[in-house]
């Protein structure tokens, strides 16, 4: 079990996926503070945070401790496989968002992200949440979801970073 009462952590995960290591992509990190954890927007989260046992455990412990979880863009992949004690997905029944299929297609076509992501983030979030995935009406437009009952905050894409940060500040100062 990770100690949530210890000093702030900068958890370094990844470096195991050969494609990203070979192409000098940075590994994924999670910013962990005593009050919240945030998963980043970089697409490597699809490869490491989504399946990394430490990431999954940390997110489950933060949820169980009633702490805030913030997920932006591809960082939402970190929540896809997190399960509650009874085996249900942590995000089941909750509105969620993350990089959409259309944004993924456009980013791949414009060589912003490499082709061949391991799964569709939109589809995986929709399945784990029980068809609660939401997205903005227009690709690349900001879309933020705050679920105060679970202390889950989501931003769909990089354009959502600023409004997501504003919502996090509101939650932290309530």
Outline:
27% of the residues lie in helices and 14% in strands. The chain has 174 residues and is of the alpha/beta class. InterPro entries: Class_I_gatase-like (IPR029062), Prot/Nucl_acid_deglycase (IPR050325).
Helices and strands, with pairings:
Elements: E1 9-12, H1 18-22, E2 29-32, E3 36-39, H2 53-64, E4 68-72, H3 101-109, H4 121-129, E5 144-147, E6 152-155, H5 161-172
Parallel strand pairs: 3-4, 4-6
Antiparallel strand pairs: 1-2, 2-3, 5-6
Describe the structure.
The model is unreliable at 1-29 (pLDDT under 50). This protein has 174 residues and is an alpha/beta fold. The protein has helices at residues 18-22, 53-64, 101-109, 121-129, 161-172; strands at residues 9-12, 29-32, 36-39, 68-72, 144-147, 152-155. 27% of the residues lie in helices and 14% in strands. The protein is globular. Strands 1-2-3-4-6-5 form a 6-stranded mixed β-sheet, sandwiched between helices. The protein has one domain (9-172): 3-Layer(aba) Sandwich (Rossmann fold), CATH 3.40.50. InterPro entries: Class_I_gatase-like (IPR029062), Prot/Nucl_acid_deglycase (IPR050325). Belongs to the peptidase C56 family. HSP31-like subfamily. Its EC number is 4.2.1.130. One of its GO terms (cellular component) is cytoplasm.
